[in-house]
Design a protein that fits this description.
The strands form six sheets. A seven-stranded mixed sheet has the order 1-2-3-9-4-6-5, with helices on both faces. Strands 15-16-22-17-21-20 form a six-stranded mixed sheet, sandwiched between helices. Strands 25-26-24-27-23-28 form a six-stranded mixed sheet, sandwiched between helices. The longest helix is centred in the middle third of the chain and has 41 residues. With about 1050 residues, the protein is of the alpha+beta class. About 50% of the residues are buried. It is globular, with a radius of gyration of 29 Å. Bound molecules: zinc ion. Zinc ion binds next to helix 1 and helix 5. InterPro entries: Metalloenz_LuxS/M16 (IPR011249), Pept_M16_N (IPR011765), Peptidase_M16_C (IPR007863).
């Protein structure tokens, strides 16, 4: 394959990075200036990043509004949502983001086939968007028939503009950069500017910036390069010649250089918050040019050295102290033409904002004082080695890692030769260079870039009066608008909106959709891993003999091993060891303390074999040296919440060391009362935040009400643990030994060889002593304890309360004063067997209902009843559910879902053929997404095949099964499983809402025949005791802060509860 195939695109770089299995090529069209980067990586998902460099001098939000308007249709495809709808068919999803210096459009597809068919349509949207006035009206800004300010972009920015981080960032940027620099702009658009932004202005911006020589297509995955070049060359051929005579300036690169700061500025700014107890500090520095890769690497590791772990300098001096000055210190860089270095100190007590700024520089200055000799070169070198490995790991695991570098190179590098790209991605030699630096080099670096130069410090302080003012101003604005417009004026606005919506919502013709045949799922290249087994795991498979992997294991004593080890052989430079433990062995009354044991697990003193004790700092430091990450989680791969998983990531050379760490952490650790106190303190600090979030409150309530205290799913819930937390905190002061004794009892019960399923994901050929490491090292202390049998795996459905076991008839109303929206989950009993005959049809039906442009999307989100609605299905816990988030009125949304589901069940509504195909396609792409790197693929395989007991090839069988689902199957499962979700006698409802709404809802649910329980955990009474006064004025919620920041947790909760995709 060469670039010779197309005459317009020439290959300008061909790089095989030394550190990860991939090949990076870049092509450049000298005729149009278009750029194309292909990162070959073996993974099922193909990802595209289409980047436009976007510089703007003002806060009008042109870059962000354009990002939205691009999706509203193109000349050849003038339909809103076409890309999403086609994406449903082609195993794809689309997205985009607007940064300060660029707008990036993404396309993610399972397999190359679907990607190839969508690419031309997507690119057509980028180069020939309709940018209609109607689209601008609905998407950007308008006033609706009730006098409220709306518009997708406006509402989005309304939620962001008054957040502390946005305010601090913008203030810092306005000082760091001159007004004329694009770096000083809020490219998302400030509300004031969005109100007056015209479609003409957006079009002008489009004409100036969206041009072929300012566009770079980056594609990562397993791609047919010939076909890709052909497709892009065809696209390039439709683009106009680059006219050298009227060459337009390159954003940022051709702009006047940013002057260096002349003086340090410390600025106190307000952000709105009812709670005035803590604020944040942002400290920004001007760094070196982005192209100075060596200095940037050095500064990156320096900031990591200063902030990363509990034993780093700044955390040790500012956070891990008796009265913390902040709860969090983060560092990051903005990779602009000159790098910007940022330090964030979060949750700083308001009275100490100035102090923390001064203290931070004192600490840094002392550390950089050569005479004091404080700099820890050994730890710095550990940090460098680890950061290098982290980068290698990320570039192997995540497609975005190399794509991000390609975007930076496109924005600031050499466009026409590819040299800067080679410099950026070719090797990791810069890490080696700085590994050789001496202390003096590091101190020089600290002085040159942090201490001897001016900086900007923003002290962001909370202001209750500002919060109140913003709320009142919002109300006043609506009142005034209504008054000025009068009923007639408002009516006209309503009409104008309606006609714009009608113009936007033109139906996509089915025959257009049918031109894009659904790709063949069999062509999606899922990652294959080979299984091997040792010891007790051997009983789980018959087919080992003859396999290469098994032979290696057998030679190392797999047949005699007195432990359970399951191996997944993967192609990777990295390995993981997971330990899966059942919580069923822990005595029920001790179970809650598991929270503390786990939080303390990786950062506690250890007694070594020679009797000496490593303090916790040494443990943290050495663990970091030997592993890339260590963590614990409840469940395994997001399911089976009665299990616990301990995880280690490392290079295969450190296998024996990691096995020894596991032994030491489980059996040789010491409970240090001072450390335990810090653990308890930190947990308590996190709780108020959780109580402010609707989805967390709902999730917690379902766990506390449906599971018994025997269930880890319940006791590991932070809100369930809250009461015990206070008790433990008191006990740690009065009788610490009592706490330690309980923890010792948990440890003795939990960490036994019988209760341990060890799972190794690695290139098995790279492991020395893959099996005997466990016998020789892990069981060194426990030879007599060799396992004869394994503790069985418990399912959450074994620990249900009577109510949880037989759902129905109850409605719980959970008051959350900080929210104006409602969040609800409805549960009914669902199938419990992983091989239930209805599993495939239920999966397709859920996917169908929640599809983009599907029934819930149109009927609930589209009608403005809620921001989102979806299905939950967990065979593991035997439940099926419906959830709605950010609803204006949860009950109305639930009722609408009932009508929709009822229509399908009764045969009144027909299943749309294209949408069913789309639903199947979405399941395929979700499965590919979940398996997009070898480790994730291996974990999912173990979950499906072993823990769920579905046997080998479970994933393939599932994907084959969903394709055979018929309309009759869908009607059947709707009747059997979905209709009961909306019947009083079989459904249990959990609603989090503003306390002002509970009484109304109580009446509504009672009329439907529910037994209603308001505030089952007395949360309002507790708030009262804590002395916080609550204002709950109705109608002030539009675009309130809370609404926006819930979007992230939606993601996380969704993946937690509904990822049964491969049942
Ligand atoms: Zn947006």
């Amino acid at each position: 394959m060469t670039s010779g195939r197309s005459n317009s695109l020439s290959l300008i770089a061909d790089i095989s990075p030394s550190y990860c299995p991939s090949r990076v090529r870049k092509w450049f069209s000298s005729r149009t200036g278009l750029q194309l980067v292909l990162v070959d990586q073996d993974r099922p998902i193909v990802e595209g990043y289409f980047a436009v460099a976007t510089e703007i001098e003002d806060d009008s939000g042109c870059p962000h509004t354009l990002e939205h308007l691009i999706f509203m249709g193109s000349a050849d495809h003038p339909y809103k949502g076409l890309l999403d709808t086609l994406g449903n068919r082609a195993f794809s999803s689309t997205n985009a983001w607007t940064a300060t210096d660029s707008t990036v459009y993404t396309l993610s597809t399972a397999g190359w086939q679907g990607f190839r068919s969508l690419l031309p349509v997507y690119l057509d949207h980028l180069v020939r968007p309709t940018l209609s006035d109607a689209a601008c009206y609905t998407e950007v800004y308008h006033v609706d028939g009730k006098g409220h300010e709306k518009g997708v972009v406006f509402s989005e920015m309304q939620g962001v503009e008054n957040e502390a981080s946005t305010i601090a960032n913008l203030h810092a940027k306005k000082i760091l950069y001159p007004d004329s620099s694009g770096y000083s702009s809020e490219t998302g658009g400030l509300m004031g500017a969005l109100r007056v932004l015209t479609n003409d202005r957006i079009r002008q911006f489009y004409e100036a910036l969206y041009r072929p020589d300012n566009l770079c297509l980056i594609i990562v995955g397993s791609v047919d390069a010939d076909e890709l070049l052909e497709t892009v060359a065809e696209f390039d051929a439709t683009l106009p010649d680059l006219d050298p005579a009227s060459k337009k300036p390159r954003p940022f690169v051709d702009s006047p250089p940013v002057p260096r700061l002349q003086q340090t500025t410390v600025k106190l700014v307000d952000f709105p918050d009812k709670d005035e107890s803590s604020g944040h500090v942002l400290i920004s520095f001007q760094g070196p040019p982005a192209t100075d890769v060596l200095t940037n690497t050095a500064l990156h590791v320096l900031l990591t050295y200063l902030t990363e772990s509990d034993v780093s300098l700044l955390r040790k001096k500012l956070v891990e102290i008796e009265v913390p000055l902040a709860t969090e210190i983060e560092s990051y860089t903005e990779d602009f033409i000159d790098t910007e270095l940022d330090l964030w100190l979060r949750n700083v007590p308001t009275s100490k904002l100035e102090l923390v700024h001064a203290t931070l520089f004192d600490v840094l200055r002392e550390h950089a004082d050569a005479a004091r000799n404080e700099f820890d070169l050994g730890r710095m070198r550990d940090v460098i080695r680890r950061e290098k490995l982290q980068f290698m790991l990320h570039s192997e695991r995540y497609p975005s890692t190399l794509a991000t570098l390609a975007i930076t190179d496109f924005l600031y590098g050499d466009r026409e030769t590819g040299k800067s790209l080679v410099n950026l991605v070719g090797d990791l030699d810069d890490y080696e260079t700085v590994l050789g630096w001496e202390v003096s080099d590091w101190l020089d670096l600290m002085h040159k870039w942090l201490l001897d130069v001016p900086h900007v410090a923003i002290l962001a302080q909370p202001s209750a009066s500002l919060a109140k003012k913003i709320r009142l101003d919002g109300k006043e604005r609506v009142r005034k608008t209504r008054e000025e417009l009068g009923e007639q004026g408002l009516e006209q606005l309503a009409k104008k909106l309606k006609s714009a919506q009608d113009e936007n919502n033109r139906k996509i013709p089915d025959d257009l959709l049918e031109q894009f045949p659904a790709p063949d799922p069999a062509k999606v290249r899922f990652i294959k891993t080979a299984t091997g087994r040792a010891g007790l795991a051997l009983a789980e498979g018959q087919q080992q003999s003859g396999s290469e992997v098994q032979e290696i294991l057998d030679k190392d004593g797999a047949r005699e091993a007195p432990v359970y080890v399951h191996y997944e052989h993967i192609k990777s430079n990295f390995a993981t060891l997971s330990v899966v433990l059942s919580t069923s062995v822990v005595p029920e009354d001790k179970l809650p303390l598991l929270n503390i044991l786990l939080a303390n697990f990786y950062a506690t003193p250890i007694e070594l074999d020679d009797g000496s004790v490593l303090d916790y700092e040494a443990v943290v430091t050495r663990l970091k040296r030997d592993t890339l990450s260590n963590s614990y989680s409840s469940g395994y791969d997001g399911e089976f919440d009665e299990l616990l998983t301990l995880d280690f990531e490392f290079v295969p050379e450190n296998y024996a060391k990691v096995v020894d760490w596991l032994r030491l952490l489980m059996w040789r650790s010491k409970f240090d009362v001072a450390r335990l106190q810090i653990v308890v303190e930190k947990m308590a600090m996190g709780i108020p935040e959780m109580k402010r979030t609707g989805t967390t409150v709902v999730r917690s309530a379902t766990r506390r009400l449906l599971f018994t205290p025997r269930s880890a799913a319940r006791v590991l819930d932070e809100l369930d643990f809250e009461d015990r937390l206070q008790e433990v905190s008191a006990l740690l002061k009065s009788d610490p030994q009592a706490v330690v004794d309980e923890l010792e009892q948990i440890r003795a019960a939990l960490f036994t060889v019988e209760n341990m399923r060890l799972i190794v994901c690695s290139d098995v050929t790279k492991l020395v002593d893959p099996v005997s490491s466990f016998t020789k090292i892990l069981l060194k202390d426990k030879k007599s304890a060799a396992a004869a049998s394994l503790v069985p795996i418990t399912r959450t459905l074994e620990n249900l309360t009577p109510e949880g076991a037989s759902l129905g008839g109850k409605a719980y109303l959970l008051p959350v004063p900080s929210t104006e929206s409602s969040y609800a989950t409805v549960f009914a009993n669902g199938p419990t067997a992983f091989d239930d005959a209805d599993v495939h049809a239920i999966a397709v039906a859920c996917s169908y209902l929640e599809a983009v442009e599907g029934p819930f999307w149109r009927g609930i989100r589209g009608d403005g009843l809620a921001y989102g609605a979806g299905m939950l299905r967990s065979i593991e816990s035997g439940r099926i559910g419906f959830r709605v988030y950010r609803a204006a009125d949860a009950l109305v949304a639930i009722e609408r879902a009932r009508e929709i589901v009822g229509g399908y069940a009764a045969g009144k509504t027909e299943f749309e053929k294209l949408l069913v195909e789309g639903a199947v396609s979405m399941i395929v792409s979700a499965a590919a997404e979940a398996d997009n790197n070898p480790v994730d693929a291996a974990e999912r395989k173990y979950l499906q095949e072993v823990i769920k007991g579905l046997g080998s090839g479970a994933n393939e069988k599932f994907l084959a099964g969903i394709r055979e689902v018929t309309s009759e199957d869908l009607v059947r499962v709707m009747k059997r499983w979905f209709v009961p979700l909306f019947r009083t006698e079989s459904a249990s409802v959990f609603v989090a809402c503003n306390p002002s709404k509970t009484e109304g809802l109580r009446g509504d649910f009672e009329r439907l025949g529910y037994e209603v329980v308001v505030d089952p955990f007395d949360s309002l009474k507790r708030v009262g005791e804590e002395g916080s006064e609550e204002e709950s004025e109705e109608g002030s919620g539009e675009g309130s802060e809370e609404e926006e920041d819930s979007s992230d947790e939606e993601e996380s909760e969704e993946s937690e509860d509904s990822d049964d995709d491969s049942d």
